[in-house]
Automatic annotation (TrEMBL):
Its EC number is 2.7.2.4, 1.1.1.3. Gene3D superfamilies: Acetylglutamate kinase-like (3.40.1160.10), Aspartokinase, catalytic domain (1.20.120.1320), Dihydrodipicolinate Reductase, domain 2 (3.30.360.10), NAD(P)-binding Rossmann-like Domain (3.40.50.720). Residues 488-615 form the Aspartate/homoserine dehydrogenase NAD-binding domain. Homotetramer. This is Bifunctional aspartokinase/homoserine dehydrogenase. Residues 99-133 form a coiled coil. GO terms for biological process: homoserine biosynthetic process; lysine biosynthetic process via diaminopimelate; methionine biosynthetic process; threonine biosynthetic process. It comes from the Bacteria. PANTHER family: HOMOSERINE DEHYDROGENASE (PTHR43070:SF5), PTHR43070. It comes from Colwellia demingiae. Pfam families: AA_kinase, Homoserine_dh, NAD_binding_3. It catalyses: L-aspartate + ATP = 4-phospho-L-aspartate + ADP; L-homoserine + NAD(+) = L-aspartate 4-semialdehyde + NADH + H(+); L-homoserine + NADP(+) = L-aspartate 4-semialdehyde + NADPH + H(+). Residues 42-313 form the Aspartate/glutamate/uridylate kinase domain.
Length: 848
């Protein structure tokens, strides 16, 4: 089952543990329940050095573990803060002492060791209880003695043992703290199981490592494992190099076939460019594996290409997703890296690397180039023009290698800037846009990477911040992805979805809109990879699953889109009560549903304020007059400085159709059932006949016109006899003939005066008398403007300061499938147009 296919799937997936895990879990359930640690598939959580730098950071990590882990998960840790740098510094100091034979340096060494020990001791005493503090301090002192011996007596042998201490201390401390405060835990030194065959190319002995890890893990205890270090086949300590802890986490995840790895760090995700220098960079919520790997290769400051290696196994059925999230703000959604559908594949980003070399040689031409490529894995190579781009660190090795072949080489300093995205090198439009954006930089060459996930421009000068911003702007300016959720797939919702494919094809503003959710009252189909709009209804019928509002809000909170629009085409008050949470999450709402806009004054004002303060947009033109632009007209008058004094008219398509059609030749109830069948009534036609629907509409318009009033301030004549008011909809429809006599009498009385009956809404504001508002059945002369409408038409009459003697009139179909669905599409286009102009607000959290 796909992870993001439906809300329900997520829940089911969490339950889908293997039988061996169930066995593991059987005897830990009690502890887990006590510690609020829910059951789910194995996850690896890795905490970087900055996330464990201080006692405060470690406490934050503890809370993340409490909230997110269960006992069979694995925690991988880096050394606290800058401990590894300090250990490196000690080592360098000793090397210099040896070379220079200086006495002061040995004092300096003693002092540096003391400082390091003090720093660790302080973390221990600040965090642990007295008993554990005592024990850990004893162990720390032993380690410090050992460190001093290594540094002073046997340094050449113990370089990696020295460096390994940071992770050992960090794992030991976190595990002790977990034991005290969260759950049983044990710390594991990865050198006790992780065997790397060859230190330089980091080939993991998977079978042996996995077997040894199985032995080391103690079921019923949360394992805290050291990152960064391992042993080689001779049993000697080795490290996994720069950002090795991330790599450790993904290796360990592959050893236990984990479902997820989360890298908790001090940045809140992967951005479309380095957000420290590109303010308009947007977070990439979902990155396909291959693209992420390419980004890591080409200089992304958070991702490192090798981190992804253990997770990308084309031969394996198992897919582990990698998350990057901030331990400083765990609620913020980070970036997920894994296998995704088309939408995630549209993301583009820009990255750069300075201080590189362009190496030119005949050895890089044609078939010969393959050898150089295999040996040096250059940043890019052009085997027709005979050049490759390498790091400065590779220069000597490359020169020596070519010298041994008796071939000459020239080097030239260069930089690169690249646009990265799924198979971008195959896309002429992207290459052309990239080239255009680079014009001023006069690139030496443009090269597509081997995997086609990047186009690399080789620059004669270092890449400047200005250039990076220009290129990023050009490449990503229309790349805001908008998710669309449609709630309500009844009469209007169905038509809305039928119109959607053609709208997406022809309206430019909808270019980045993706249908991702469909909801009825009980079922939901959610797919972050997009739902095929041409088959929306049938996919919903086949795949939708039960859901509740909590699951819906949870998904809305986690959704991977830059913007999310919910179109509410339900008649449900309950659904409208979710708006406040949606607005708090920055979700935009388009409503045909009238409940929210006609709710109590306090609730309505609160909604308006919540939407405003979260930059959520909310449109509801179809709540009154279906597709007629009445809401827009009133907004426009008000915003332009006019003041409205009267609003009146026929606001119900149903009642317009009924009273325009009703001439006594057939029973009123027959016409009512006919209107219901045509889809021009509310789902329950008593909402129309009771006057409530018109009352709500008048309230909505009066509020739009700037008046603060409530539903109770509008007198409402209910046309449903009391005996029919409390019935179910079906029972009411079965007894609809009980309406006939009342309307027959009312009609014949009006006709006898040469008049007609119409259900009219009237609102008036007078400086002296204040506000008066009512909706009722009126007897009107046949010549009245409200008396001669095409059945189903609405008419809105507005008097204002500017329209005093001759009121403004808007008239036309005010209900029905096509016009209402059309009106909703008009709102959708308007919101998408506004969102296209919205600048992303990037929170920069710093970079490791
Ligand atoms: N008809 C018209 O001309 C106009 C209608 N409107 C408004 O449009 C809305 C829809 O009307 P219409 O299509 O005729 O109604 P329908 O009764 O035909 O369809 C309603 C849909 O909403 C779903 N629904 C009900 N409650 C919920 C809920 N809590 N969460 C999610 N989905 C829910 C229903 O699902 P399920 O099938 O599971 O019950 C159904 O799919 C109403 O608010 C109406 O006032 C506005 C302007 C004009
Ligand atoms: N029942 C309503 C539908 C639209 O709001 C009407 O008839 O106007």
């Amino acid at each position: 089952m796909k992870q993001e296919n439906t809300i329900l799937n997520k829940v089911n997936e969490n339950k889908a543990v293997s039988s061996s895990e169930i066995a593991d879990n059987d005897f830990i359930t009690e502890v887990a329940a006590e510690n609020k640690l829910a059951k789910h598939a194995i996850q690896v959580h890795k905490f970087g050095g900055s996330s464990l730098a201080t006692a405060k950071c470690i406490k934050r990590a503890l809370e993340i573990i409490r909230e997110n882990c269960q006992l069979n998960d694995i925690v991988v840790v880096s050394a606290n803060g800058k401990t590894t740098d300090r250990l490196f510094a000690l080592y360098s100091l000793v090397e210099r002492t040896i070379v220079e034979h200086t006495i002061q340096k040995s004092d300096e060494l003693t002092q540096a060791i003391d400082e390091l020990a003090k720093e660790q001791a302080q973390l221990i005493t600040e965090l642990l209880n007295a008993n554990n503090t005592k024990q850990l301090l004893l162990r720390l002192n032993k380690d410090i003695e050992q460190l001093t011996t290594w540094l002073t007596a046997d340094i050449a042998q113990h370089h990696n043992d020295v460096l390994a201490l940071g992770e050992v201390w960090s794992a030991r401390l976190l595990s002790a703290l977990l034991n005290e405060q969260v759950c049983p835990s044990n710390s594991i030194d990865s050198r006790d199981f992780l065997v790397i065959d060859n230190e330089h190319s980091c080939v993991v002995d998977t079978a042996l490592s996995a077997a040894q890890l199985r032995q080391r893990r103690q079921f019923g205890k949360l394992a805290v494992i050291t990152g960064y270090i391992s042993k080689d086949s001779r049993g000697k300590s080795c490290t996994l190099g720069r950002n090795g802890s991330d790599y450790s986490a993904t290796i360990i995840a592959s050893l236990v076939a984990a479902g997820n790895v989360t890298l908790w760090t001090d940045v809140d995700g992967i951005y479309s460019a380095d957000p420290r220098v590109v303010p308009s960079a947007r977070k990439l919520h979902r990155l396909p594996n291959g693209v992420a790997k390419e980004l890591g290769r080409l200089g992304n400051p958070v991702l490192h290409a090798k981190t992804l290696l253990p997770l990308i196994n084309p031969l394996s059925e198992h897919h582990t997703h990698l998350h990057v999230a901030s331990s400083f703000d765990a609620q913020v959604i980070g970036t997920e890296i894994g296998k995704f559908g088309q939408i995630a594949k549209q993301e583009l980003s820009v990255t750069y690397l300075n201080d590189l070399l362009l190496a030119q040689s005949v050895s890089f031409i044609g078939e010969a180039a393959a050898k150089a490529k295999a040996e040096f894995s250059p940043i890019c190579i052009d085997n027709q023009k005979g050049f490759m781009v390498i790091t400065q660190g590779q220069q000597k090795a490359l020169s020596d290698w070519l010298a041994s072949h008796d071939v000459e080489i020239t080097f030239k300093p260069v930089a690169i800037i690249a646009t990265v995205g799924h198979r971008v090198a195959e896309r002429g439009d992207i290459r052309a846009r990239f080239k255009r954006s680079l014009k001023a930089a006069k690139p030496l060459n443009l090269v597509g990477s081997d995997n086609n996930h990047s186009v690399i421009a080789i620059l004669p000068e270092p890449c400047s911040i200005e250039l990076l911003n220009t290129v990023h702007h050009e490449m990503t300016k229309d790349a805001r992805h908008i998710g669309l959720v449609v709630a309500g797939m009844g009469n209007i919702g169905e038509r809305f979805l039928e119109l959607l494919p053609a709208q997406l094809n022809k309206v430019y503003a909808l270019e980045n809109l993706h249908l991702v959710g469909l909801l009825s009252s009980k079922k939901a189909l959610i797919n972050n990879d997009g739902i095929d709009v041409t088959q929306a209804a049938s996919l919903f019928a086949q795949e939708a699953q039960s859901y509740d509002h909590e699951q819906l809000i949870s998904w809305l909170t986690q959704n991977p889109y830059d913007e999310l629009i919910v179109v509410d085409i339900t008649p449900s008050e309950d659904f409208s009560l979710l708006y406040e949470q949606m607005f708090s999450l920055g979700v935009h709402v388009i409503g045909a549903n009238k409940w929210a806009a006609s709710s109590s004054t306090a609730h309505y004002n609160n909604l308006v304020n919540t939407a405003d303060s979260n930059n959520s947009l909310c449109l509801g033109n179809t709540t009154v007059g279906a597709g007629l632009p009445i809401n827009y007209a009133i907004d426009d008058l008000r915003q332009s400085g006019d003041s409205i004094s009267e609003l009146s008219g026929i606001f119900s398509g149903t009642l317009s159709w009924l009273f325009e059609t009703y001439d006594g030749s057939s029973n009123f109830s027959e016409l009512l059932l006919n209107a219901l069948a045509q889809g021009i009534t509310e789902p329950d036609p008593r909402e129309d006949l009771s006057g409530r629907d018109v009352q709500r509409k008048l309230l909505i318009l009066a509020r739009k016109a700037g008046f603060e009033l409530a539903l109770e301030d509008i007198d409402c004549q209910n046309l449903v006899p009391e005996a029919l008011q409390a019935l179910s909809t079906n029972d009411f429809l079965a007894r609809a003939s009980e309406l006939d006599e009342y309307f027959a009498t009312a009609l014949s009385e009006a006709n006898s005066k040469g008049a007609c009956i119409r259900y009219v809404a009237r609102f008036q504001h007078n400086q002296e008398t204040g506000v008066s508002a009512k909706v009722s059945l009126e007897v009107l002369p046949q010549s009245d403007a409200f008396a001669n409408l095409t059945p189903c038409d609405n008419i809105f009459q507005i008097s204002s300061h500017w329209y005093q003697d001759n009121p403004l009139i808007i008239r036309g179909p005010g209900a029905g499938r096509d016009v209402t669905a059309g009106g909703l599409h008009s709102d959708l286009v308007k919101i998408c147009q506004q969102l296209a102009h919205k600048q992303s607000q990037v929170k920069i959290k710093g970079i490791n």
